[in-house]
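Think of the structure tokens as a kind of shorthand, similar to the way a musician reads notation: each symbol stands for something richer, in this case the local conformation of the backbone. In the example below we present two proteins back to back. Begin with the first one, reading the sequence and then the tokens, and try to describe in your own words what changes along the chain.
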Amino acid sequence: MKKNKIALQIISFGLVILTFIACDKDFASLESDVINNDIATNFDILSEQYAIIAYTKPLEPAVQTNGLIGLSTLGIYDDAYGRTKSSFVTQLSASSYDPDFGNGTVIDSVVLRLPYFSRATGFDDDGNTIYEIDSILPKGETYDNIKLRIFENNYFLRDFDPNADFNESQVYFSDKTAAGSGGFSGALEGEELIFVNSPQTSYPNNSSDNSINISNNVFLLEADDDDDASTPAVITERQAPGIRIKLDPTFWQNKIIDKEGDAVLSNQNNFVNYFKGLYFEAEPVDGDGSFLILNTNSTNANVTIYYSTTETNGDTGTGTYVLRFGPNKINFFDNDGFTLPIESGDPATGDSRIYLKGGEGAVAGIKLFNGEDLDDAPEDNSFETFKNYFVVTDEGKFVRSKRLVNEANLVFYVDRNQLDMLNEVSDNEPNRLYLYDIDNKTPLIDFVLDATNSTLPSFSKLSHLGILERDETSEKGIKYKLKITEHINNLLIRDSTNVELGLAVSLNVNVEESTLGSVQKDVKGADDFNVPVSSILTPRGTILHGNNSEDETKRVYLEIYYTEPNN
């Protein structure tokens, strides 16, 4: 344990301490004309550093990937660890059942849409909205295309596990297996759907071999005036960026339209038994590709059948039949392209390096005070030694404070030597990490109390989950600082258990809000820990210095700033 006395003293115990707790900057920067040695005499501001145990926990052999709050992943991602490929399967739900399509029904077109996460940033010279895409990796001015293949799924996605307790939901894993059952990869690729070249789609006239254009372009849908060829086409709709494909109608004529009046279209249960869904698979184009995070829960994510009818009296009409994605959806990961193996760390002594990787990758276990809790031998227990330094206890229960904790941070340094040796680009480094309670599968109290909420994940929970500090010139990562002040205070004054913590890369820290129904997911064959949803959804990864790093100046540590009377 190392002690540093900082030349800061305070007059007002309550008011100024609250100011310190609210500050998100390094504590040493807080000296000002209000707080200085000339006017403060009652208290000292001190700091302590504590070693912690940090070790890698690979997500082997697979991680649960159903129930990911409506988000699906698709595509190709390359980083220091190697190549990850992601695919997904989804059920379909009809907009209505027992449909009456009319007489002489013929399909005009079938359009599949998968919108990206995007936000409007302005308008171009033609008045079209300009969008910024938030859900394509790696980010850039342009994106690499992917080869997309879509199949009819022949594997029935169950709601409940027949081999488990009553009403226990079925768990599906990223390696195309189901809990209590075997693998089902062979049943995913039924009949392959045929793409139709068409303007204002992701598969325009100059595309071939299912190569899909990935871009932030808006789709401008037009209606032609058949009565006057000289009249220019009128734009009827502008659709936000996403995947938009026209599909050959033959499959849908046979599968849907020709089944009018059949029991298979009478209700959802019959329908999902008859038409088990679609399987989406991505392959690289010219060796490269993009990784997409898709909001398949959106009402704009669907397959729409446009059809025409001709009645016996000669009257004609048009109609649409919409199939939305869900309710059951499963993401799959293929890490066969990994060139950097992830091995299990040492939970007793910790590791020299911490390997973090999203998807079917790795998280880390974090043990404060050697993972110890209260016992009968306080002289041998680092947790009780820490607690007795800050508070007075009676049989382990809090009585009063000796010193007041103002701020507590976990500091993790990026292993630049490793990432640079692996030629990692700075854009691939995750901006956010997520810290959580492994034992109880919940966020920390600091997450709940952090008021820096925003709809933009880059600006949410900034006080608790600090953004990656980067070099101003190279933009390469330097360190992460995660504030756990209230967690430490809970250990000291609320007699909380010193639980093991988990550390994971995060796509979007907002995803972990309990109000969204986010539930941590199982690791296949592991009973001792779960994985946050926001980590499963991102392919990003990084390498951090552990507590046994060869570079002692970069070892992970817990820093605590506190106030104590100086008399």
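Once you have a description of the first chain, move to the second and do the same.
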Amino acid sequence: MLIEILGTMTAGLGLFFIGVKLVGDHLKQLSGRKFRKIVTKAVNNPVRGALLGVLAGAATQSTNAVAYIATSMTTAGLMSLRGAMPVVIWANLGTSALVLAATVDIRVLVLYLLGMVGAAFYFNLDRSSRFRHLIGALLGVALLFLGLQFIKQGAAPLREMQAVRDLLELGADSYLMAFGIGAALTLVAQSSATVSIVAVAMTSVGLLTMPQTMMVIYGAGLGSAESLWFLSSNLSGTSRRIVLQQIILKLASTAIMLVLFGLEQWRNIPLIQALTSWITPSISLRAAWVYLLQQLLGCITASLLLGPTLKLLARLAPATREEELARPVFLYDQALGDAETALDLVSREQNRLFGDLHGYIVTADHFAEPTPRDVLALYRGNTGVSREIDLFLAELIDRNQDRQTMHRILNHQARNRVLDDLRESLFTLGRTLEPTDDGREPTSLAHTLAEGMHVILRTMADTLNSSEKIDLDENEATMLTALTSDRSALMERLRHDLLGHGEKLPHSVQESLFAATSLFERTIWLLGRYIALVVPIGAFDIARHQGTENGTRR
């Protein structure tokens, strides 16, 4: 009998965990881009931001997911850290929705829901981009509640077993043990709501007393703070600030609830347990209310202390160089109302990114050479801006533009793809031309390649950003086309010379130089593609014709 009971409970836990995972993953996909747009409008008002946080927490059932979205938007400059905090704080209260729902007996509804989801899978609706995430989320809900029914069904006979009764009597007054169990399970499950739901299910069948359940829930709050602390160890800047704020919230709410618990248990002052008994006679619903009150007190405390907390977080986790670089300079949502202005701003943002490309190549005349960490920060920051440009252009497309405007949008999307390829190529080229680990200085060829690429990039960047106009004139187009003319014959000659006269160089250096010449050649080709997209078609045709004539004379 015991084996069957444990098997039923294990299966229930498995279904429950699968359901939680499916609900979170698919709802995050459903709320991704639309959620970002709603957040940008809501964070200007703290009350709207708090309401949005509650809805986001209820939808995703993950404060980490809400924090991740808020972090990416804050890093991109779409909202301030102070504006993002109410959303992140009150998402904790939203997670209590699932805990409350778990107390309701909806067995028949879950069975019908599972049948409808199965029919959707049979008719391949799960493969539709429109319905895929909705069906996945509904499947998660069905499995989640079905798993809870299995847990309750398996746990019910345990209270009749004498060994279990003896164990419960032994631990009836050991609140510390219940608190530790809640913290430990949360570290494993990575969700205080998940552990609290299981505790509520155990309470409903009489395996846990109300005080024990309360301590398990409070311990889950501490365990959630501990898991977030481990997560924050690899974070920095805004990401770390948001996670640290969540840790402070969870520790504060747990501390408050423990103080209230002690006053109620040992001073006989009617507080949380008395309040929940007044709200409802159902012991499982009372346990769910304990979780909700813990989150509510934490949210209120964090909101009242938000100002001092932000000052403390600014000292503990200052903004990183990468975050500063990842903020667009010219893009803002209000510009989306005028497509032509918006595209002019995109041009300036892309020209600014182009101006950063020379930073990936270290030359001998640099007075303060960038370290690998600086180059990596530049690379990641530029990548973040490029993502924001893509989102900005996608938003423009959604606004039903005319044919000419659509042509410009597609052109800018193509520029962005080439910029991404250029960034990858130059980042790799820069690392290839760096001094080797054994301290050996770069060869004269490496110096020449670095200097040549640096000059080309600086000249092109200066030309693209030299005036307030968006398009280049004929003379500028001719010069840039000549700079990006085909270098394949020259690179092939250099590689041939390496084969013939490179015996004195170590094999690793020869390999590095061969790779560098190939990357140099590819980068020049990509630069030519970019110029072809930037220069107006008529000017580009003239410039290409003149470049061909010049090449013929040479």
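Compare your description with these statements about the second chain. The chain has a mean pLDDT of 79.
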